[in-house]
């Protein structure tokens, strides 16, 4: 889907699996991460993603800018540009990691709260 085919009031999400396979879906700014997981599960691209199929929508997690999104977070709350494509990772995971678990480990080791000077990205 090219940029000119994305409605101006929608957000095109290019979802990347751990395997590197991608698929694009169009959503509204009011759609939440949980809504997206259900939609993707219900419309799973069998031909392309058959090997990555999951047992239920609730274990699908979105990662945006290196952070897991809670199911209640909407695309609009993230400030994503309308009519454009945004890339996110889609991973199967039963539970979200504890908030700041990495920061707590670093602090307990006497290190700083960031791992490095650059932004981290989970792939």
From TrEMBL:
Record field: compositional bias (Basic and acidic residues): 93-106
Residues annotated as domain UBL3-like ubiquitin: 9-116
InterPro entries cross-referenced by the UniProt entry: Ubiquitin-like_domsf, UBL3-like, UBL3-like_ubiquitin_dom, UBL3_Ubl_met
Superkingdom in the source lineage: Eukaryota
Region (Disordered): 93-113
Pfam families tied to this protein: Rad60-SLD_2 (PF13881)
Name of the featured protein: Ubiquitin-like protein 3
């Amino acid at each position: 889907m090219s940029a000119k085919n994305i409605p101006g009031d929608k957000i095109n999400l290019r979802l990347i699996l751990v395997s590197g396979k991608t698929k694009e879906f169009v959503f509204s700014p009011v759609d939440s991460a949980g809504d997206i997981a259900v939609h993707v599960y219900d419309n799973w691209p069998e031909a392309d993603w058959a090997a990555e199929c999951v047992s239920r929508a609730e274990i699908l997690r979105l990662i945006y800018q290196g952070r897991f999104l809670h199911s209640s977070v909407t695309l609009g709350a993230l400030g994503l540009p309308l009519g454009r494509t945004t890339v996110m990772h889609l991973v199967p995971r039963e539970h979200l990691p504890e908030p700041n678990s990495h920061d707590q480990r670093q602090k307990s080791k006497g290190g700083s709260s960031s791992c490095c000077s650059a932004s981290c990205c989970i792939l």
